[in-house]
Amino acid sequence: MIAWKESYDIGVEKIDCQHRQLLLKLNEFFDACSNQQGRDKIEETLGFLKEYTLEHFSNEEELMDEIHFPELGDHRKEHAEFVKTVLELEEAVKTKGVSVLTTIKLNRILTDWLLTHISKCDKLIGEYLAKRGETA
């Protein structure tokens, strides 16, 4: 389980709220895995991620476009790469079934995304807004 830390907040309430929602789902998946129920929870988690990424990435990219965020292109590439990974995992589950390896991979991907992308890359959006004296 990962506890939400204020340091994960980027300073944009809508985005921070969506990030907290992702952490909640991640923790539900961790909990299921630690109770030997990861196989049952993986399809639900992947379904959530597909919907989440569509809405969340769209919101984030729209905001970055509005504020003329200089790293929008790189950020979009990272989003596309994450979506590709989620779709590949979903396809693997559909064709090969759920395995311990897929549950471990999903755990790793989600943890890495939360700890690396959100706390480093997304944080730059809030810092950029703060430098400009703006809020979103």
TrEMBL record:
Taxonomic superkingdom: Bacteria
Alphabetized CDD domains for the sequence: Hemerythrin
Record keywords, A-Z: Iron, Metal-binding
Keyword Ubl conjugation: no
Transmembrane segments: none
GO molecular function, one term: metal ion binding
Record domain Hemerythrin-like: where: 11-126
This protein's record includes keyword Cell inner membrane: no
Family in the record: Belongs to the hemerythrin family.
Protein name per the record: Bacteriohemerythrin
Lineage: Bacteria, Bacillati, Bacillota, Bacilli, Bacillales
